[in-house]
Amino acid sequence: MEARWRSSAKPVQAPKTTKTVSFEEVSGKASSSEALPLSLHLTNAVFFSLFFSVVYFLLSRWREKIRTSTPLHLVNLSEIVAIFAFIASFVYLLGFFGIDFVQSLILRPSTDLWNSEDEEENEALLRKEDARKIPCGQALDCSVTSAPIISAQKVVDEKPVKLTTEEDEEIIKAIVAGTTPSYSLESKLGDCKRAASIRREALGRITGKSLSGLPLDGFDYESILGQCCEMPIGYVQIPVGIAGPLLLNGKEYSVPMATTEGCLVASTNRGCKAIHLSGGASSVLLKDGMTRAPVVRFGTAKRAVDLKFYLEDPENFETLAVVFNRSSRFARLQGIKCVIAGKNLYLRFTCSTGDAMGMNMVSKGVQNVLDFLQTDFPDMDVIGISGNLCSDKKPAAVNWIEGRGKSVVCEAIINGDVVRKVLKTSVESLVELNMLKNLTGSAMAGALGGFNAHASNIVSAVYIATGQDPAQNIESSHCITMMEAVNEGNDLHISVTMPSIEVGTVGGGTQLASQSACLNLLGVKGASQESPGANSRRLATIVAGAVLAGELSLMSALAAGQLVKSHMKYNRSSKDVSKTS
């Protein structure tokens, strides 16, 4: 356990004398790899030669017996001698060269022993100082503990003093020298927190740059191993605000938003208030299907067309679906659309993926189908599992038109009084601004799916808070915002149509503690036990509802001329937070 201490008095001085405890002192034995007598070298050579000679002899004899159909258990005197020689040489070599390995497993000292005397002296000094509580950054554990100090990063008088064990110091030096790769630390040490600490220190020495503002403690590095982030050195703190309650389809949701943009949460919250006072919003899921589009090539365009006709033939769909669906108990093939470019063929697979976002799931299913097609189309050359017709993490008309992930439309009727009193504008002004800005202005700009005010703001904030892939904000923010005066012009009808919201409630970043807590707040944590896919679909509708609230509030601020004023009030600060502890 690492501990952080702060003292109101003078800095704690580390002991001047340090006794280094070597592995030999801990174990009481010398390593077998140290200087060997000449006779041992000769003996090793003899047993090496004997071992490989008898192995070769026995293999040759057994091969001859197999060729002549002679039972292997019938052995002559020379074979018996060879077997005993093999056992004897194997035992010798294992006993001699296995000492280091056995010592590393049985006699390896605890890390507590390396600097035991240093720790006792440090702890004695620290007990003389009275620890006091001081203000600290949000989301950091500043409680004072009495746990013993092992290798730790101490903070004394606001200046971190990094203490490392001798073993850690050797690893750091090896990384700096380039003899030990940084990416191998987790597998070699078996301690993800320690690996991150060592990597962080080595990086600081290599670059000469301070990482004091980047937190290391307070994070479960085991949870990201092999799934979320490689070679971690800390984590970035992003504040999470709450907008709501958002009244959507008769239920209230407190929407978590992770952002560093002032006004965003406050503005979305105002939109939620206006929607709630007007009776709430409703949303409908239009489509649910993740896509993957490999590209394959043939020798001629005719052969590419043959495969296109085969895949689009309804009689073959059931067979292809069986092959595809083997990849997962949740994956269900919905359709395949093919696009020809010369002798190249792009196959856009669409499938349902349960509560997972589903990119890995659909990719495995596509690979199954490609392997199956090789039988009837052996001349098919698979160029790539993704040919960009998917289209993932890029603005693309195919997603805007065909949809990808969850396609959702969300609407609400805002009472005229709410527009005037809460949003501080008028129905007529909002309708006119939406037409000239979101529709005409976006068309003049040649926008692709960007017929909205700031849908990506809300999508990104909710995605980061709930563990989604932030890069998929690109296509997930495709949105067209519509506004119309209704009820004889007294009220406002507003809607957002979003054809490609890509979300999941299992897998990836959704498994991390903070993101999982945000999903739990929305009531969509994990997989739905009653109806697979229900949680991810509900999350998509919540995203659309939050976008509706954000669009309503920002457009009202623009119509009322309040945008600059509100941003000057909430989105600017004279405080340099980088200098605060």
Topology:
Elements (H helix, E strand, L loop, with lengths): L22 H5 L10 H30 L9 H21 L1 H8 L9 H12 L25 E4 L2 E4 L3 H12 L7 H5 L2 H16 L32 E9 L2 E8 L5 H14 L4 E11 L2 E3 L3 H12 L1 H12 L6 E10 L2 E9 L6 H18 L4 E4 L12 H6 L2 E10 L1 H6 L5 H18 L5 E2 L3 H12 L6 H4 L2 E8 L4 E11 L11 H10 L11 H27 L2 H8 L11
Parallel strand pairs: 11-12
Antiparallel strand pairs: 1-2, 3-4, 5-8, 5-10, 6-8, 6-9, 7-8, 10-13, 12-13
Helix pairs in contact: 2-3, 6-8, 9-19, 11-12, 15-19, 16-19
Subcellular location: Endoplasmic reticulum membrane
Family: Belongs to the HMG-CoA reductase family.
Organism: Gossypium mustelinum (Cotton)
Write a brief caption for the model.
This is 3-hydroxy-3-methylglutaryl coenzyme A reductase. The protein is 44% helix and 16% strand. The chain is of the alpha+beta class.
Tell me what the structure shows:
Helix 15 (427-444) packs across helix 19 and helix 16 (455-466) runs antiparallel to helix 19. The chain is an alpha+beta fold and 581 residues long. It contains 20 helices and 13 strands. Mean pLDDT is 83; it is low at 1-36 and 101-161. It folds into 4 domains: 46-94; 166-224, no CATH class; 240-288 and 406-570, 3-hydroxy-3-methylglutaryl-coenzyme A Reductase, Chain A, domain 2 (Alpha-Beta Complex); 294-389, Hydroxymethylglutaryl-CoA reductase, class I/II, NAD/NADP-binding domain (Alpha-Beta Plaits, 2-Layer Sandwich), CATH 3.30.70.420. The longest helix is centred in the first third of the chain and has 30 residues, at 38-67. The chain is extended, with a radius of gyration of 33 Å. The strands form 3 sheets. Strands 5, 6, 7, 8, 9, 10, 11, 12 and 13 form a 9-stranded mixed sheet that branches. Strands 1-2 form a two-stranded antiparallel sheet. The chain crosses the membrane at residues 38-59, 80-99. Pfam families: HMG-CoA_red (PF00368). Its main location: endoplasmic reticulum.
